[in-house]
Amino acid sequence: MTEPGQARRKPSHLSELTDVYDFLDQVRLRPGVWVRGGSLLHLESVLFGYQAALSVHGIEEDSDFSTGSQGPFADWLWTRLDMQFPSALGWAVEIERAAEQADKPALETFFDFLDEFRASSHGAQPESNPRRQAPSGIRQPRATD
C-alpha cells in the first residue's frame, strides 16, 4: 500500500501520534497488528474506541469518521460510490462490498478511498490539524511513560 518511490515510514509509539490520521498511518504500515482478518468492521470498531477514549478523557479532536453512515468521510463516500442515499450499513460494509466487486483487499480499498478523500480537501490535512490537547488536569503520555 506504499506507493513506489515513496520512503516507507517506520512504526511509531502510540504516544507519538497526534490524531486519527497518524493512527491510520500506523494501521496502514502494519494492518495485521491492528485489524483482525483485514475486516473494515474491525477497523470501524477500533475507530469507535478511539473516539470513545477521546471523549472519556475530555480531548477534543475533529474526526472525519464515525460509526455507521454519518460523518464527513461517510458523506463523501456515498457520493463517491454514486449512492443516492446513505447506507444504513455504514461506510465499512459499503467499502467491503466495493472491494469485493473490484476483487481487491478491503483494507487496500479503504486506504485508496481515504487518500482520495484527503486529496479532495474534504479530509483534515496533517499540516492544518492542530495537535490535540488534553484539558488541564489530564496528563498527556510521553514517550518515556
What do these coordinates show?
There is one protein chain. This protein is 46% helix and 0% strand. The protein is an all-alpha fold. The protein is globular. It contains 6 helices and no strands. It starts with 19 loop residues before the first helix and ends in a 26-residue tail after the last helix.
Query: What's the helical proportion of residues?
Result: 40-55%
Q: Kindly state the number of beta strands.
A: 0
Strand content: under 5%
Q: The biggest beta sheet, please?
A: none
Structural class: mainly alpha
Radius of gyration: 16 Å
- The N- and C-terminal alpha carbons lie at a distance of 31 Å
Topology:
Elements: H1 20-29, H2 31-34, H3 40-56, H4 72-80, H5 91-102, H6 106-119
Short description:
With 145 residues, this protein is mostly helical. It has helices at 20-29, 31-34, 40-56, 72-80, 91-102, 106-119. It contains six helices and no strands.
Features of the shown structure:
mainly alpha; 145 residues; 46% helix; disordered C terminus
